[in-house]
Amino acid sequence: MERSNCIRELFLENERQTLSPYACLTSESRGREQYQTPCEVRTDFQRDRDRILHSQSFRRLMYKTQVFLAPTGDHYRTRMTHTLEVTQVARIIARGLRLNEDLTEAAALGHDIGHTPFGHAGEFAMQKCYDPSFTHYKQSLRVVERLENDGKGMNLTFEVRDGIVNHTGKNMASTLEGVIVKYADRIAYINHDIDDACRAGILSPDDIPVGIRNILGNGYSERINTMVTSIIRESTGKPYIKMEEEVQTAADGLREFLFERVYRNPVAKSEESKAQEMLIRLFDHYVRHPEQMPELYRNNCETEPVERCVCDFLSGMTDRYAIEVYSGLYIPKVWKGPQI
What we know:
With 340 residues, the chain is mostly helical. The chain contains 16 helices and no strands. The chain has two domains: 49-263, Hypothetical protein af1432 (Orthogonal Bundle); 272-330, no CATH class. α6 (119-129) crosses α13 (272-288) and α9 (176-199) crosses α12.
């Protein structure tokens, strides 16, 4: 056996020897929709992780809203920094439970890859103008299966795609690694959105109810540590992923506090209606003028409804690109005549 092939086999054997009986082994993956010769030095899940990380859709997350629309401060989270925090939380849990870190990391990195600009305001806009059943997690699956790589998709393994599309909502992923991503997503956004809200002056750490602080802790890092270690304690050696009941109740209370004080806060969300109206107007424009979209989306109109293709185009936009396109279409430019 060549040395390069030996490297991949060493990874696979290490999984068999060290991971939990409940882990999803790479060697037992349901595979890809289109067969590809295995990489010589990476497992399939490691390869999926790299494909997501190097994709254009992933890079665009840098300029997509997490909570505060197109924030100018350097330290507010974006959709990319959210994704990186989710990934780190998920890997810690997977490592603590001896589950497959590579699968967990790949699904976590891809979980929001199809998210709309302007956060959930963009998602609501697509529900209004395109389809009430539109969700960012279904769009993330569509990106990796249909849109990325010039329309060829990434050809990811079943388990990674399953973890991406089931990271939120009522459905559960078919692997424990995918379920970890669902928990890690919530742990990350609950805590970093509160941190950003405090940075913005909307909240003070002392506003968090005392009963919740007594269980989860007083600071950002302490709360994350409490939730993560609770999952590891409750789920070790078990065929499921759960948080201890007391900690889960406190985490649910913290999430509801976040919705009341931040997500429904008119100060934090003052620009959302404008963002929605802007995207709806862009949707109407490109449905009437699909020839003005980039080549990928124009070509897709030959086999799919134009509304579907326009939704794909808008969902892939960054905040600033959407604003730039809208300004070019609808905001008059100042005339600068010759200086005499």
